[in-house]
UniProtKB/TrEMBL annotation:
SMART domains assigned to the protein according to its UniProt record, in alphabetical order: HTH_LUXR
NCBIfam families in the record: Sig70_bacteroi1, sigma70-ECF
Protein name per its UniProtKB record: RNA polymerase sigma factor
InterPro entries: RNA_pol_sigma-70-like, RNA_pol_sigma-70_dom, RNA_pol_sigma70_bacteroid, RNA_pol_sigma70_r2, RNA_pol_sigma70_r4_t2, RNA_pol_sigma_r2, RNA_pol_sigma_r3/r4-like, Tscrpt_reg_LuxR_C
Organism in which the protein naturally occurs: Pedobacter helvus
Family: Belongs to the sigma-70 factor family. ECF subfamily.
Amino acid sequence: MQFPVENIIARLRSGDEAAFKLVYDEHAGRVYGLAFRFLKNREQAEEIVQEVFVKLWLNKIKLDITGNLWLYLYVIAKRLCLNELKKVAQSRDLFNKLMQDIEAADDSTQNLVAFAELEKISSEVIALLPKQQKKIFLLSRLDGLSHKEIAEKLSLSPHTVKNHMVEALRLIRCKLRQEDIVFLLVVLFL
């Protein structure tokens, strides 16, 4: 059963364990995927998942009722992973273990999951564009049409098409920054 985010957060803040389980069930896989991309180690990724949700529970009262729960979990997971990587950087044994784990990781499956997540996020961001900007953006990026070709197709001036593209790209970049996707892209291509 799907609940509005505000309702789930309110229930979490009040100590509702069923709400916590719903959040865990919905987000644990994504947290694990993020941690595994960083650490390339199943056990460490599982530990990160546990730590993230322990921190969520312990700090539940601090949650913003209208906040982005996934972004909150993402930031916690990212910080925990970076802390683990700092430990790795300071220890030759841990560094060698990480290198072995990287070689052994099944990147094809992880890449498919990561790219599916990026595709989903991209679609959501593009869907937020105003109708005309979205149409122009899709004609440019998916159909590969030039500004001039789009202008002819939509009976617009090339200057209008260019302005719509500039604005669409600005909105997309802004939204991706809010979602911290730039950092996620860097992680994906480590």
